[in-house]
Amino acid sequence: MTSKAYRPNVAAILQRSDGKILICQRADFPDCWQFPQGGIDEGETALQALHRELEEETGLRIPHYKVLDSHDGYRYDFPAGSPLKKGFIGQEQTYYLCRFTGQDSDIDLNTHNIEFINFRWINPNKFQADWLPDFKQKVVLQAMKDLLKI
């Protein structure tokens, strides 16, 4: 159960059949590569938020991926001194592992609210924690370990 102090959030690890995972380069922080993610809106389930966020951020729709697994309860605090985001002190995330069933041409980063400027597929062991802000690194690495069994 999510505390009111933490914004409920979902994140997607999309994996191709060859084992490579999708990472996306943020538009606002070009040195940051991450998984598609976003908040769960009021009245929305985590799974509904996953589908909405993937479509909003990458253009991918349900035919382009299949949900394989999920883990929840990943929590991080925003850095001390940073402004609260929508009144929350941090985020509590549900991570989904999804099998990518589409083609690269199905990925469209030029959505109505551009969050990413590039994407690439990497082997999970090539993911570098320093692509992320310090406060997110432990959560992301734990989610990868739990879902990808690495």
3D structure, described in words:
The chain has 150 residues and is of the alpha+beta class. The protein has a single domain, classed as Nucleoside Triphosphate Pyrophosphohydrolase (Alpha-Beta Complex). Helix content is 19%, strand content 35%. It contains two helices and seven strands; from the N terminus they run E-E-E-E-H-E-E-E-H. The strands form two sheets. It has a four-stranded mixed sheet with strand order 4-1-6-5. It has a three-stranded antiparallel sheet with strand order 3-2-7, with no helix packed on it. Strand 2 and strand 3 form a beta hairpin. The two termini are 26 Å apart. 30% of the residues are buried.
- Biggest β-sheet, characterized? 4 strands, mixed
Question: What is the CATH class name?
Answer: Alpha Beta
Could you tell me the number of beta strands?
7
Using the CA coordinates, give the radius of gyration. Answer: 14 Å
Q: Mean of the pLDDT scores?
A: 94
Q: Which CATH architecture would you pick?
A: Alpha-Beta Complex
Question: Taking strands numbered 1, 2, ... along the chain, how are they ordered across the largest sheet?
Answer: 4-1-6-5
> Fraction of residues in helices?
10-25%
The helix count comes to: 2
Instruction: List the helices and strands in order.
Output: EEEEHEEEH
CATH-defined superfamily: Nucleoside Triphosphate Pyrophosphohydrolase
Portion of residues in beta strands equals: 25-35%
Number of domains: 1
